[in-house]
Amino acid sequence: MRKALLLALAVVSLTTQAIEPGQPAPAVSLPDGQGKTMNLASLRGKVVYLDFWASWCGPCRKSFPWMNELGRQHGKDGLIVVAINLDEQRADANQFLIRQPASFQVLYDPGSSTAKAFGLKGMPSSYLIDQQGVIRYSHIGFRDDSPAEITPKILELLKQK
Question: What is the residue range of the signal peptide feature (predicted)?
Fold first, then answer.
C-alpha cells in the first residue's frame, strides 16, 4: 500500500506541475469521516492551512499535535485547519487517528485526486490559502523547525482581513 502511494506520488511528480504560491487553490470536494462532503471553496473568507498526510508518514505524526494547537490558538481569528488523508484503506487512517487524534477537519482521498491536482511532491505537504482562495505558501515535510517557519506566515495572513 505504501509502495503504491509512493509510486503514485512519483508519477504525479513527473507528470504534474506543482501548484505554486500565487495560484488559486484547486477545487477540493471530499468526504469527511461521516461521509459529508466538504468543498474547499466554502471556506472562502477564512485562512486555510491545508495538509496532505498518510498513516505511514513519520513526519505526519509530529505535525498533528502542532496542527491541533494551531487550530486551538488561531481558529477564533479565522484559521481553518484541514487535513486530507491519502491512504488507500480508511482503516489505516483510522488507526493513525487513534494514536494521533485530530481536533481539525479530516477529509479522505483514497484515489489521490487532490494530490494530483496540487502536484504533490512529498509527504506531508501543506498549503497556506488566503481568504480569496489563493495559495500563499507551500511546505514539504515537517521538521522540528517547521512551526517556526510556518506560523509567522499564518499570522501575517490572519492580519489581512
Answer: 1-18
- Find the largest Cα–Cα distance for the chain: 43
Cα dist from 92 to 71, 87, 135, whole Å: 24, 7, 29
Q: What is the pTM of this model?
A: 0.89
Tens digits of residue pLDDT in 77-108: 999 999 999 999 999 999 999 999 999 999 99
Instruction: List the beta bridge partners of residue 82.
Output: 50, 105
Is the pLDDT confidence value at 14 over 60?
Answer: no
Residues 129, 47: contact at Cβ < 8 Å? Answer: yes
CATH label of the domain that carries residue 155: 3.40.30.10
| CA dist., res. 70 & res. 105, Å (int) | 13
